[in-house]
Amino acid sequence: MTSKVRAEFKRVVSTDLLESFLNGLDDLAPRLLEVYEAATKSAKKPALKAILDCLKKDDTNERRRTAALLGLPHYLREEPSDIIRMCDQNSDDAGRSEGQNSDGEDEGWVE
């Protein structure tokens, strides 16, 4: 399903969806990380500190992107599991139709 969405997006706007998203994220990540760092000074956001500590071990562009995305719900005081869903690339999707989650529920894709 993801490849269909990306292909349709590219067909309509002549831009690759993933590339556009990652370029935007690369532009915003440094500032988001600065904001998260400032928020950790008050000691009210230990989850943000843990996310930022991972960058001290391995500060790569991919890690900065990940930290920017994972930190957002913590910064906004939202439940991360309500916003970010982790996917296992090796999970068995057999028996699941396109547009359904692992529980067989409709994911809300518009086709």
The count of DSSP E runs of length 2 or more, i.e. the number of strands, is 0
What is the rounded Rg?
17 Å
| Overall geometric form | elongated
Strand content: under 5%
Q: How many H/I helices? A: 5
Poorly predicted tracts of residues: 92-111
Q: Which structural category do the helix and sheet elements fall into?
A: mainly alpha
Q: Could you estimate the helical fraction of the residues in percent?
A: 55-70%
**Average pLDDT number:** 78
The SSE order reads HHHHH
Most strands sheet: none
What distance lies between the first and last C-alpha atoms, to the nearest angstrom? Answer: 10 Å
Explained architecture:
This protein is mostly helical and 111 residues long. It has a domain at 11-78. The chain contains 5 helices and no strands. The longest helix has 24 residues, at 17-40. The radius of gyration is 17 Å and the shape is elongated. The termini are close together.
